[in-house]
């Protein structure tokens, strides 16, 4: 099984495309090569595949990256399933992971939520989607400053609060306050729960 995330940038028409697309490409390049592992297409849509264990952390890395750009947010559909056909271009690959992700993104556009997951198991979908709806109440309201701190923590899990303070030219107590406001410890626990639930599929 693999995980496929299909997403689109919310409010992309109100931001400098070069800024967010350069940052997103730089992030996705850390996880694999285009166009086999990821691709940005139709201006503001993207798709990429990853290991199922990593999918929640990858989702959060993208969310925090995009939220650190003024006025932007991102909508993402997580599909878990098989890859029955692997093309040189991810957008031409196929399997239940791709179908689950692609169809789900259309549903998200209609229901107003910014993230959801679809697997082959309804009870798992129900549990994880309730979790994602609650979590998104926090994620969707991150300030740019909070999103920047969260992104650094996700991408550099060994980084200290002292290092973050130096990087952002703020006090360590300010870093600590931002992490508390973002419920970072709860985010780490949620990632562990996510991995456990998906491993049971």
Automatic annotation (TrEMBL):
Pfam family, one: SatD
Name of the featured protein: Winged helix-turn-helix transcriptional regulator
């Amino acid at each position: 099984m693999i995980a496929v995330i299909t997403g689109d940038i919310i409010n992309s028409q109100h931001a400098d495309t070069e800024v967010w697309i350069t940052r997103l490409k730089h992030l996705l390049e850390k996880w694999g090569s285009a166009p086999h592992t990821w691709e940005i297409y139709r201006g503001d849509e993207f798709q990429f595949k990853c290991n199922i264990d990593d999918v929640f952390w990858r989702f959060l890395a993208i969310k925090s990256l995009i939220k650190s750009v003024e006025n932007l947010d991102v909508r993402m559909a997580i599909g878990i399933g098989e890859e029955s056909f692997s093309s040189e271009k991810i957008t031409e690959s196929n399997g239940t992971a791709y179908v689950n992700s692609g169809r789900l993104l259309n549903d998200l556009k209609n229901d107003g939520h910014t993230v959801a997951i679809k697997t082959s198991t309804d009870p798992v979908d129900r549990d994880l989607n309730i979790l994602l709806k609650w979590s998104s109440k926090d994620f969707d309201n991150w300030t740019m400053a909070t999103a920047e701190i969260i992104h650094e923590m996700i991408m550099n899990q060994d980084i200290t609060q002292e290092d973050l303070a130096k990087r952002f030219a703020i006090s360590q107590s300010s870093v600590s306050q931002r992490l508390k406001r973002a419920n970072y410890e709860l985010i780490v626990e949620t990632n562990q729960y996510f991995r456990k639930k998906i491993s049971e599929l």
